[in-house]
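Justification of computing resources. Each target in the renewal requires a structure prediction run like the one illustrated here; the chain below, 540 residues long, is used simply to show the kind of job we budget for.
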Amino acid sequence: MATATTQSPKREAFGSRNVFILSAIGSAVGLGNIWRFPYVAYEGGGGAFLIPYLCALLTAGIPLLFFDYAIGHRFRGSAPLAFRRMHRAAEPLGWWQVLICVVIAVYYAVIVAWAGMYTWFSAQLTWGAGNEENFFGTDFLMSEDVNTVGVSTEFVPQVGVPLIAVWVIVIGIMALGVKRGIGKANMILMPLLTVMFAVLVVQALFLPGAMDGLNAFFTPNWEALADPGVWASAYGHIFFSLSVAFGIMVTYSSYLKRKTDLTGSGLVVAFANSGFEILAGIGVFAALGFMAQAQSTDVAGVATSGIGLAFVAFPTIVSQATGGSIIGVLFFGALVFAGITSLISILEVIVAALQDKLGWGRIRTTLTVSIPLAVISMALFSTTTALSVLDTTDAFVNAFGIMAVALVAVVVVAWLLHKLPTLQEHLNRRSSFRVGLIWKIAIGALAPIVLGYLFVTELIAKISEPYGGFPAWFLAVFGWGMVIALVVFAILLSLLPWSKRSHAKDDPEYDEFLVDEHYDPDPETGAVPLQKPAENGARA
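Resulting structure tokens:
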């Protein structure tokens, strides 16, 4: 037993299953739901895209969500600790996920800051009618060419000041802990986000030309279903949309109480996330239909996604629509709330990992993690060259970070460690929706095939042509170099010894959990058996 001087802090927990569900939905519902899904669906066949989308949700999204829940809840730890308890050699997978979150947190915060400033601009129509694109690049980002390559030291106040505010807010939420900080923030922000976006959608539906936008969004193009790229796009979107495979759901599920309906919770989160995406598609394309009519063009001429949709197209809509200021405040306010709930989930992966590794308290760990990340975020993204760095980093960390670690994780867990029976049994122990052979096939066979296809496709695309036309040195630093560094540092972190105060070796709560589950950990390695002891085999 640990002495009083080395006892690690007690592991935190969500106040209830409902708080966990709201927090998981808050993580899943992010910027991509609002500015990416509508365009992906439109390009993928409109109404016909719902078929591959639903298939991807049922055969990949939900099974992978269950996979993360089972790992986090069964092995009761952050991503590195959970994988370590599964097998010592698997620990680098957890650190790989943590480092991916480090990279994402650094640039995700600045997009939230942009949305915050545009909420203010919307109230005053600061950008001026017909000057939205020039305003974003020249006036707001203070760059004559937003794709300027390099790392500038020229500070942009209208970006830097709100970026500081974003970091202060999220650090405050994180410092309060899982129950009082993350849980309460999601209990407040998620209902507000839902109401705001519902009002936005209703208002957009009454704009002139809204029906043209909805027709463009929902009219099925059945020929698109014969295109493998459309199916790959559906699987890729579902995969990123649900926040699976980069430590968030592993970490969040480790804060659940023992007797929790894991699969039932997962179904609520998955379908709530998809429902919000469809709602976003309706609102966005209703607004784009109005924009197309105002500019005497068709919807295809104005449809876009990502930063172009949010910070160029929507300001144009706000300038031209009656009551546009209200639309702008609702839209950009929704981006802020969605961004904050996702950002705190990303930061929690990092904070939880260091807490487990070092045995530190919540406030000390939060400040140790967040302040350096905030400084790096300010240095890279409050300058005139922010957009090119953000674009490159985001493209590479998604394709060769999240996708790669997900592929390796399912192969290692399913094929090398043979842990799917353990995870299946854990999911079925108390959950309302039982998983069986189909779930194991989805994780052990379908997921590696789909992820492998997506990974190879991205690899060929980025090797055959320099991403964004950027020079080799720039891609080597913020693209390929970063991807390689993630793997190298993940291995190095796994080699560092765990503190005597950490949860790895002496965790009474975990030991009690194992006893309750009828598992006996190895006293030397902390590893757990693949299956229950034979004498407990009759217990369900």
